């Protein structure tokens, strides 16, 4: 059947889908990087105007790329189109405009539609619940430095992968590899929320690039550590239900060709709720040929062998424990095998620390950690960063804290709804001891307990009482002199206060004196710490942490067991120091009343003692 098409009929462009631009990732017309976008745009005479959405449509048309619907100007709905035309028509001052030709009326309608299509606020780009392809991200990174009005990027539930996040961080910071010559971007607010990480080929390239540089001992340690963690998770999640590794493999092998690609493998791994990095490092280590395809023997045989080794080691340990119990000899801690030592270092294992070179190397080559930490680096101009519900854990916080310690621009960090536990809180506390820019930290709906909260706040806040205040407080009543002296000694020896050498910032200025000058080295910039909906208990212990907070700081505790205890009438027990301060204020009130009776001493009333200390510290918000 033949169809006749009218030559005047407009060509209908295909709609955007997630894989429609995949041909641009390979072949002769491939767009391999942001630099390739710059070269192709220069060849075709493309000049950015500074309007992101308009420039995005133009460059997609030049490169014959299907534009992403979230990055172009939104289409006008019929109701809005009709209302805009009617409003424009009613405001027409010329009454003869109603009798003009239809062509003029069409021009008025199109002009009115263009006015409505133009966004009222060009400073925010939001993408919510929609996947983003790599080609669109490259075009976005190319145009970001040219639009100086675009200050906010919001990606919610978009499943950005490692490579896309790295391109965004380079474009925002103005890196030479991603920057197309327009300077650094004007983006200051970034939201990457509900972003479960996806793995690309970049992961395997980075792993195979870094592994040959490692020593043999470290490589064996990494193999043993990651495979043991992987097999423990698989055995607990599947073998307990009667499944075997061979059954799991056949369930993944839908085509029954004994080959499973890493994409299919990762989908199954996500359903099993395993650690993505651990599984893919295991996969990459056994993928010797680097073809991202494992046969049945390559995948199943090592798993079965490792399971047998673990079972044999477990039986040997149990036999040794029985022999030691019979002889009454305690098992030596130095003789613990390698698997038990590494169990203390993985997420969800027993409490404890293992300082190990292999784990440090694993932290450095982890692409997930580097992708998130790049937005908090020293070169990043962002002031607000949100990683909400991205399943960030201890290893991510270690990388973010190391980068954020030298950052001077970030003020707000949102880590709500992740997997931050007490071990990750140690890295946060160490960060706050060095950072001087962060003012708001949101750790709501995580896994922090009272120990983790104490590990965070012991490095922040300050208690400052000058010598003059101490003298006034001690001179009000003679009985208070001993209390003031003990308070002063307590402040000098309080935990979390570090006294360091005061160094001149100018190198050419030399300090000829050898005297020590103590400087208070604690974070006083944090204003809000949100630990709501965490398993934090013991209302009385939290109340005793008041003096550890910064001046005017707010600690949010809504939805915690401690807040429930406080609402049910639980009162915080007062410390001895707090009770001493209360008695001092009572004595001060009696002294003021006595001096007020005498007209000669009525005007000689000293300032209240310890009032300045009372005003410092946290302000608790229980509900």
From TrEMBL:
Pfam families: LRR_6. Residues 94-111, 309-335 have a biased composition (Basic and acidic residues). Signal peptide: none annotated. SUPFAM superfamilies: EF-hand (SSF47473), RNI-like (SSF52047). Residues 94-113, 309-337 are annotated as: Disordered. It comes from the Eukaryota. This is Calmodulin. The lineage of its organism: Eukaryota, Sar, Alveolata, Colpodellida, Chromeraceae.
